[in-house]
Amino acid sequence: MTEIKNDKDHLDDYCEECGCEDESVSQNLLMFGYKICASCKISKTIFPI
């Protein structure tokens, strides 16, 4: 059985779309399942292509 660590080291705050570091990346990962920052989330919502 594997041990689950409760540290935040595996949740880096780098956006998969633009590569910037932002604390909203880990929040969006937990809420929506995507590692994107708030600005990329807004741009994906407005322009979903």
Descriptive labels:
49 residues; mainly alpha; 2 helices; 37% helix; globular
Describe this entry's structure for a reader:
The chain contains 2 helices and no strands. The mean pLDDT is 84. The chain has helices at residues 24-32, 38-46. The protein has one domain (12-49). The chain is mainly α and 49 residues long. The longest helix has 9 residues, at 24-32. 37% of the residues lie in helices and 0% in strands. The termini are far apart.
Quick summary:
By secondary structure, the chain is mainly α.
Q: How many distinct folded domains?
A: 1
Please count the helical segments. Answer: 2
Radius of gyration: 13 Å
Low-pLDDT segments, ≥5 res:
none
Overall body shape? globular
Percent strand: under 5%
Total strands:
0
Helical residue percent band:
25-40%
Question: Average pLDDT, to the nearest integer?
Answer: 84
List the secondary-structure elements in sequence, H or E. HH
Terminal-residue CA separation: 41 Å
Largest sheet: none
Structural class: mainly alpha
Map the helices and strands.
Elements: H1 24-32, H2 38-46
